[in-house]
Amino acid sequence: MQMRPGDDDLLLIIDVQNDFCPGGALAVADGDAVVPVINRLAERFAHIALTQDWHPSGHSSFATSHPGAAPFETIRMPYGQQTLWPDHCVQGTPGAAFHPQLATERAELVIRKGFRPEIDSYSAFYENDRRTPTGLAGYLRERGLQRIFLAGLATDFCVHYSAVDARRLGFEAVVVEAGCRAIDLAGSLDAAWTAMAAAGVQRVKDVAAI
């Protein structure tokens, strides 16, 4: 398959925010290493979009919103199982800002997600109820964009859910592994790669393959 980006391809940069990088509230190990990779990758694309976790204070996915609960526990929510997280990416805080070295100037769209207090949102396309859309799919279709290259944080959560939803909605999806890092919570990374492969998501190692 031809990997060189064309006019109907989009680079979707997932949640490269301070709170997911070393020193942040929900730091992904080596998370800031994706920044130079993504910046090199972005030079090859005519179309770029970003996602940004954007939680109100007291969000229902925060462990602090559930007395007696601890981060990384799983609870039952009305829409299904939900991992509880440390407070992170709270609207307007430095932790919610994009990494300062991330090149964002050429991005045509920023999708903010997780802003509904009662529901978390991993995917760039849907909230965690798997039904409430962000509007990204409609934007891509109106723009005639058909193939989505994904990079960012974290491989096993927001990148994974976004890539699988892209396939579910009929888009081609390619994950650039060198531009991602994982949380790997109780085997979540292996499970994510298995689910992405089953959905028809393609996987490339690094920028040189594109």
Kindly describe this structure:
The chain is globular. The longest helix has 14 residues. It contains four helices and eight strands; from the N terminus they run E-H-E-E-E-E-H-E-H-E-H-E. 20% of the residues lie in helices and 21% in strands. Helix 3 runs parallel beside helix 4. The strands form two sheets. It has a six-stranded parallel β-sheet. Strands 3-4 form a two-stranded antiparallel ribbon. Helix 1 links the parallel strand 1 and strand 2. The model has no long low-confidence stretch (mean pLDDT 96). It has 210 residues and is α/β, with parallel strands linked by helices.
* Helix/sheet category: alpha/beta
Q: Give unreliable regions as ranges.
A: none
| Portion in helices | 10-25%
Outline, from the CA principal axes? globular
| Overall number of strands | 8
Mean pLDDT: 96
Main beta sheet, described?
Answer: 6 strands, parallel
Rg (CA only) = 16 Å
- Order of strands across the main sheet: 5-2-1-6-7-8
